[in-house]
Design a protein that fits this description.
Oligomer: single chain
Order of helices and strands: HEEEHEHE
Number of domains: 1
Number of helices: 3
Distance between the termini: 91 Å
Shape: elongated
Strand order of the largest sheet: 3-2-1-4-5
Length: 139
Amino acid sequence: MRFLIHKRRNTPTIIIVALVDVLIVLLIFLMVTTTFKQQSALKLKLPESSQAQKSGANENPPLVVSIDTNGVYYLDKLPKTYEQLKSELISQAAKNPKLVLAINADEKAPWGKVVKIRDAAAEAKITSLVAYTKEPAKQ
């Protein structure tokens, strides 16, 4: 009687270096194709303007003050009183004399609140103010 002799097969080897290379290429691909868009935590309906400009990357990003429909001030997504906001603007302007203040107000926000922010900016000696708007809908 003749028995079959089975040859032992070598276990397959996995080349880890090649897998790491593939993972690095995938990581680079995801980093390049991902868009980094700043999402606002506040849901504001910005007023429309025919002069609206798209904001791009700036060397000196603006300090954004938001006002919701109830007239509450937000700085760095935190609610602030007018006095807190004014003192923060004064301290930020002292640190950076070329500070740009951006007003991000809901279209139903009280106009008096926007005027108060402008007054606080003037008191802090901030000379550059911008207002965020959106482009009108195409008809």
